[in-house]
Amino acid sequence: MSTEELTQPELTSTPDVVDNPAENQTASKEPATASNYIIAGLDLGTNTSCIQAVDAATGNEVCNTVVPTIVGYADRGILAGILPDDSAELFGTEALRNELHLRISRPLKNGVIEDVDAASKFVKHLRDIVDPAGKATIHAVVGIPSNADEEAKENVQKAVSSIFDSAILVPEPFLAAYGFRDESRLKDPEYVDPVKNSLFIDIGAGTTDYCIIQGYFPTPEDQLSMPIAGENVDERLEEGLAEAYPDTRISSNKVREYKEKYSYVGEPQYGMKVRVPVGGKPRTIEIGKQIGEACNMLLENVFQSLEKIIPMARPDSVFELLQNIILTGGGSMIENMPEELQRLLLESGYENPQVLVAGQDFKTFVANGALKVALAARPEQWANSKV
Amino acid sequence: MINNHWETARKLFREACFLRSMGDEKGAIGILSKDMPGTVSAWMADSQLTAGKKKERLQEMFQEEMRKVDESVELCELMLNRFEETFSLQIRSILYDFQLLIYEVFGLDTSSVRTPSEPIAPTRKRAKGKAPSKKTAVPIPPPSAEEMAGRLRKFKETRLRTNKEWQSILFNDIEKIIDSVLDKEAQSGTKTTKSKPKIKRKPTRAKSS
């Protein structure tokens, strides 16, 4: 009955959480410029994006990079020498580093593109990481949220059009499960194939996606997407802190930082002290209660949604399914999340539930699955998906 | 005659290799110690080659046959794994649909139907002197022909309604999944105006460029 962390699928390399093309090249086995034909998998996430690419001719990894999904526009009239290379636009960590001098835009909200222009510039930035010379032909599989409507899909198409030579859009929950699956261990009797009968819960920044995977490509009916996720925890935490400490002003980025550092669910925990400026002077405040309240709100919502999706599984598969509930996404890293979810399921009368955590590499699963799909695509399929 | 002895030796050696790869060590040794020596001696007697060349040719043939058998066994294992992975899911799905059909249409309880992989539970011996309980033995009248026809129609409608577009695509059938995604995209007209004319898809896998 204990929760556990599943063994990670073996990635060709660990992702570089950098978005500097020059740095990225050093992390690659082959210089990206050597490739004329590149196959890529892209996860365009609300909070962070991940791109994995290989040289189609050699199979060598070109890049495996996680980049915060942020575009920063330089303020007009900013003095020369303040921003790196006096750039008008910065992306990812570089944008965050220079936040003070930039107008920050987050191209995605609730898992879907809100600012197509910014998203397109961001995707172009990712392309520059993969192919700094800009000469290669790039075919990419791009993840789309399970709740993506026609407009959302069209926005993804617009964002990637003219940047990649062709792109195939595939639902993210499938890609996450496929990326998480470790084919090299399928013969291992100890290995539980996650695509046989599992329920994936991807607690992202914008949405929490639920997907039943039972050996088939999931249908829309096998999926559920709820707009309660990490961003809502941030909002709740910000509100809670403003209520408890009305004289303090804490930026959204700081709130997210606190959440990522201290998040937990279950009984209230104390002793989480942070230093914040009050009228320019430092003050230490206790945030344990507020963190717990914000995260427990998410837990409650995840549990309620879980109760909706479980009956959607085939009746004869439910008992086995309950033993393979796999948590992924940033929310899976919240302390006690699997244990508390398991407890709630048990208390609600579900038999022998087992909630597992996909692991630390959750940011790469969708891109990894997308790359696997991209590598299996036939030439004429790429030809049919020109953008 | 020379060729016949040579071919017979080749076939015998191949058979021995196969038996050995299947774990039949005894059978392999039998061929190698009983049948092979005579055939090889006959070929050596008939052949015009020098003793050294004869030995060399035999060695080459042995190596070649061992390699062929190894490759065939490996290929067989690969195919079997692929077969098991693909078809076990399909069979489970068909079995499930069938159970659903006989439950919903004929009203028969199929919960006790075993899948082929499940072990057979040992039958319990009835206690002596006790009559079987009749508590739950209330006979349910079989459904009429009309009732069954109605249920069958309803079942078909439900199955058709829930026969989702992607349901039949196996998780590892990536090419089919991509085709579905592209077809859906084409139907919904998601494509940008920059799209180039489509190339007609071929039913078989194209050779990689």
Q: Count the domains of chain A.
A: 3
- Kindly report the spatial arrangement of strands forming the biggest sheet of chain A: 3-2-1-9-10
Return Rg of chain A in Å. Answer: 21 Å
Low-confidence stretches of chain A: 1-12, 17-33
Mean pLDDT of chain B: 69
Count of distinct strands of chain A: 17
CATH class of the largest domain in chain A: Alpha Beta
> What oligomeric state best describes the polypeptide chains here?
heterodimer
Low-confidence stretches of chain B: 114-136, 163-167, 191-209
> Structural class of the helices, strands and pairings of chain B?
mainly alpha
Q: Could you tell me how far the N terminus lies from the C terminus of chain A, measured between alpha carbons in angstroms?
A: 48 Å
From the alpha-carbon coordinates, what is the Rg of chain B to the nearest angstrom?
A: 31 Å
Number of H/I helices of chain A: 12
For the record, the CATH architecture of the largest domain in chain A stands as 2-Layer Sandwich
Largest sheet of chain A: 5 strands, mixed
Could you characterize the architecture of this molecule?
- The complex is a heterodimer of chains A (387) and B (209).
- Chain A is of the alpha/beta class and 387 residues long.
- Chain A has three domains: 179 residues, Nucleotidyltransferase, domain 5 (2-Layer Sandwich); 102 residues, ATPase, nucleotide binding domain (Nucleotidyltransferase, domain 5, 2-Layer Sandwich), CATH 3.30.420; 64 residues, 2-Layer Sandwich (Nucleotidyltransferase, domain 5), CATH 3.30.420.
- Helix content of chain A is 33%, strand content 22%.
- Chain A has a five-stranded mixed sheet with strand order 3-2-1-9-10. In chain A, strands 13-12-11-16-17 form a five-stranded mixed sheet, with helices on both faces.
- In chain A, helix 4 links the parallel strand 9 and strand 10.
- In chain A, helix 6 runs antiparallel to helix 8.
- The N terminus of chain A is likely disordered.
- Chain B is an all-alpha fold.
- Chain B has a domain of 72 residues.
- Chain B contains five helices and no strands.
- The longest helix of chain B has 54 residues.
- Chains A and B meet through helix 4, strand 10, helix 11 and helix 12 of A and helix 3 and helix 5 of B.
